[in-house]
Design brief:
- By secondary structure, the chain is of the alpha/beta class.
- The chain has one domain: Vaccinia Virus protein VP39 (Rossmann fold).
- The protein has five helices and eight strands; from the N terminus they run αβαβαβαβαββββ.
- It has helices at 29-43, 57-64, 77-90, 103-112, 130-141, and strands at 47-51, 69-74, 96-100, 117-122, 144-155, 163-164, 167-175, 178-185.
- It has an eight-stranded mixed β-sheet.
- Helix 4 (103-112) runs parallel beside helix 5 (130-141).
- The chain is globular and about 40 Å long.
């Protein structure tokens, strides 16, 4: 397995701890670099929600590149412990909140608190049609700002809708059997 590292920004080059075993599937450096090349114009001073955060690699990368704050969510206690270690190692813990919870509960909580995010990162387990349900839940709870972006990493054989509510597909990138689907929220 590749070493997971921060590619750019204030924590560039820091190696991140990963969870042993096959319960997580860290985003490859190639996919992560492409993802951040696409969203770079949106990162500075943004608020980021990283659902299914795993090791925290994507949220930490966003913070390293200038996001104002990040909320990282994973239902695995082990993943959350590793995320917290990675945040201390990269000295980004002050800008981040980590929740050990199911994504549905956190989305409802964020909506109840009136929280909205500029960037939402979705990298769930590769289960067929799971992201489609997540998109519906996210739109129902309205936690993404107007002109915000949502990036979903999924398998090539998992077809996502062109739109869900005010979210419209803006770009799609294919890397072998992995796809990044980028949505923008219109007004």
């Amino acid at each position: 397995m590749d070493i997971v590292r921060v590619i750019s920004g204030t924590a560039k080059g820091h190696k991140l701890k990963t969870v042993k075993g096959i319960t997580t599937r860290p985003t490859s450096d190639r996919v992560k670099e492409s993802l951040f090349n696409i969203i770079t114009p949106f990162i500075m001073d943004s608020e980021v929600l990283d659902l299914f955060a795993g090791t925290g690699s994507l949220g930490i990368e966003a913070l390293s590149r200038g996001a104002r704050l990040a909320v990282l969510v994973d239902k695995s206690r082990e993943c959350c412990d590793i995320i917290k270690e990675n945040l201390v190692h990269t000295k980004l813990q002050e800008k981040c909140t980590v929740y050990n919870a199911d994504f549905v509960d956190i989305v409802a909580r964020m909506a109840g608190e009136g929280r909205k995010f500029d960037i939402i990162l979705l990298d769930p387990p590769y289960n067929k049609n799971f992201i489609q349900e997540m998109l519906k839940i996210l739109m129902k709870n309205d936690i993404i700002r107007n002109n915000g972006i949502l990036i979903a990493e999924h398998r090539i054989d998992d077809t996502l809708p062109e739109s869900e509510g005010m979210l419209k597909i803006a770009d799609k990138r294919v890397f072998g059997d992995t796809v990044l689907s980028i949505y923008r929220k219109g007004r």
